[in-house]
Amino acid sequence: MCAGKVISIRGHEADVFSAGYICPKGVALKDLHEDPDRLRTPLIKRDGVFVEASWDEAFAEIERRLPTLMAAHGKDSVAVMAGNPAAHKIGLLLYFPRLARALGTRNVFSASTLDQMPKQLSSGLLFGHWLSIPVPDITRCDYLLMLGANPLASNGSLWTVPDFKGKAKAMQARGGKLVVIDPRRTETAAMADAHHFIRPGGDAFLMLGMLHTLFDETLVKFGRLAGLVNGLHEVQAAVAPFTADAVAARCGMSAATIRQLARTLATTPRAAVYGRIGTCTQTYGTLASWLVDVLNIVTGHLDEAGGAMFPKAAAFAANTAGTSGTGKGVMTGRHHSRVSAAPEVMGELPVGCLAEEIETAGPGQVKAFISIATNPVLSSPNGERLARALDKLDFMVSMDIYVNETSRHADVILPGPSALEDMHYDVVFPQFSWRNHARYSEPIFDRAAGQPDEWESLVRLVAIVQGKGADRDAAQLDDEQFASDAQRLFGAQAPAVVQALGALKGLERLLDVALRSGPYGDGFGQRPDGLNLQKVKSASGAGGGMDLGELMPRMPEVLRTPSGKIELAPPLVMTDLLRATADLARPVPDMVIVGRRDVRSSNSWMHNLPLLAKGPIRCTALVHPLDAARLGLTNGSMARITRIATAHSAHSAHSANIQSIGAQVHITASMMPGVVSLPHGWGHNRPGARLQVAAERPGANLNDLLDDQLRDPLSGNAVLSGIAVRMSAVV
Under DSSP, is residue 110 helix (H, G, I), strand (E, B) or coil? Predict the structure, then answer.
């Protein structure tokens, strides 16, 4: 940095977690900070045109319109949604729930039902909490079986593992094996010891065949967890139809390979199964996510060194709070969506329900939408339908740094500061990390004059919703809320807690409370050697943060089920196995489409950054040479891709999104024959968006082909892969 400008960004070699590894998104923060398209001031739409406004004017406009609308139509008339960037922004993550609670609406959405809700649901059912997600202990693992995951591009997803390539190579150097199951020979598969193609949507069937083999060949073992597992006999009976021979055709793998995978997993002392986005974004997302953990459990690899282990985050991890080893567990379906009757999961409804809730008249119809760092017009299925629905709203607010394909529909846009103007502490990612740690980053730059932090904007929105007015001071409102929370959480000790926090305000106050009351914390003086914010800050400069050690066994302490045991046979999952049984003989389509992530373009908001956008065109349709020859496709040519109507979509009132998209062809043997791959998050050609770099290479939007009504019925997650399509050459 020089004279207020970023010269370069590089990794901190002393960092206790990353050891200096930095992904392209981190390097591109320079471009994001300097992006001329990034909003620096609020916008209000006047007569259909955005005009710049002051912050007071923007909040006054919200106060003028939103409370009146809620009074007329009820609390459920407002929908609210948080997007992917919120996971990287502590202010959004900690204060978004306050806004959702203040609104009191059932129409709460997030990006979770586009990529990860099946894993959160299966973890909750098995272990009692949505975020008790075991991850591979890669530094001690000798056999890692990976399904539908590409951590070489993602650095892990629900598994925070910077420099996966280096760690995997170290595993291989000591004799360990990496085996990848994927319909594409991904970057991760290319470095693996073995790669097996699988038919998209076949992951659950593969793992059921493996599980059947373990039972059939008496390879099931629990080790020290033997007394902590309920439901083994129910699972054994339920998987009886899924022999390796029965599932082979459904997953496109030989029965012999399926059996051998099971045997190797069971007989390797230190081994783990890991599944990610490919296992979640399919019709059996929850079933596949559950099976990943079941395989780890029944082979004795759960909660063991070198297996799948539970990280222990320093702050904000609910599975480190409360009574150890028992809890309330999780519930779903406490309410349902108004139109499709989709069950609530983790307090959220499926994103695929948002458009219909806006379109469908009647009590509870969504009339207003508050979008927090989201772009569902690109990232969710049938985005054109959602775009049309957003235009029917009475009012919309976006908190976003861009006028993008979704925020262009808003009446008010409230921009957040640059990431380099924010303090940073990872709230979510330490809960999935390969090693326990605590790190804090100071802001690099001061915020521009008048620019509030995102938590302050959310506090002001809460005040408007609660009728306290748009002009209340955010810091004062936050003080009032914190005093109430402290009394509720600490009771008679609240005054001592408040005194211990000194002059801390806002995010730093919440972070200090979380660290001090966390598993490594000082207990507000009760454990003098424990953590507090000041200690983490001091260690996070030249020292690179606080290393809290390798993953350690946490059973039964981590469990939050009412029984205090692992619930291996949740009724929801047992019922879904019946659906899978009936589906065993389903004919395989000639061609299906899957998405993909690229290390330089994992999310749509990254497409406007020159550093990441340069180089070869990445939004291409990958097809196998055999398919290319059969369909008359040539490398670099354009192809037309059309979704094939299914029995479901043929009866859907909104199947009009079945249409063709054009994409440039890239022929490669890395694809499984019969599968085409198109990346996620493109389609930057909507009018009204202000993304100059992205618009130069708009790309084709995979989600335009997908059905917003097609979901994993248990979790509500959108089905984004394994969809039957036709391809033809554009002449």
Answer: strand
Instruction: Flag whether 19 is in a domain.
Output: no
Continuous H helices in 104-162: 112-115, 117-127, 151-154
Q: Count up the domains in the chain and report the number.
A: 3
3-state secondary structure of 449: coil
Q: CA 231, CA 568: separation in Å to the nearest integer? A: 5
Q: Is residue 345 part of a domain?
A: no
Separation CA 254–CA 258 (nearest Å): 6
43 beta partners: 52, 413
90 residue type, one letter: I
Domain span at residue 239 reads: 126-321+556-581
**CB within 8 A of 594, min separation 6: which ones?**
183, 184, 200, 278, 675, 676, 677, 720, 721, 722
- Looking at the structure, tell me whether residues 382 and 445 fall in a common domain: yes
**pLDDT(651) > 50:** no
Same domain, 362 and 309: no
444 and 367 within one domain = yes
Edge-to-edge strands, sheet with 395-399: 49-52, 43-46, 412-414, 395-399, 368-372, 78-82, 108-110
CB neighbours of residue 68 within 10 Å: 12
pLDDT band at 650 (very low <50, low <70, confident <90, very high): very low
Report phi then psi at 350, rounded to 5: -65, 140
The two tokens of residue 349 are: 């409804």
pLDDT tier at 659, thresholds 50, 70, 90: confident
CATH number for position 687 = 2.40.40.20
CA distance 41 to 609: 20
- Give one DSSP letter per residue of 295-342, joined into a string: HHHHTT-BTSTTSEE----SSS-GGGSSSTT------EEEEE-TTT-P
Would you state the structure tokens that stand for residue 250, as one six-digit string?
């459904």
pLDDT tens per residue, range 419-466:
999 999 999 999 999 999 999 999 999 999 999 999 999 999 999 999
Task: In whole angstroms, give the CA distance from residue 144 to residue 178.
Answer: 5
Helix (H, G, I), strand (E, B) or coil at 273: strand
Q: What is the pLDDT of the chain when averaged over all its residues?
A: 94
pTM here is 0.96
CA atoms of 120 and 391, how far apart (whole Å): 32
Buried b (16+ CB within 10 A) or exposed e, 500-512: bbeebebbbbbbb
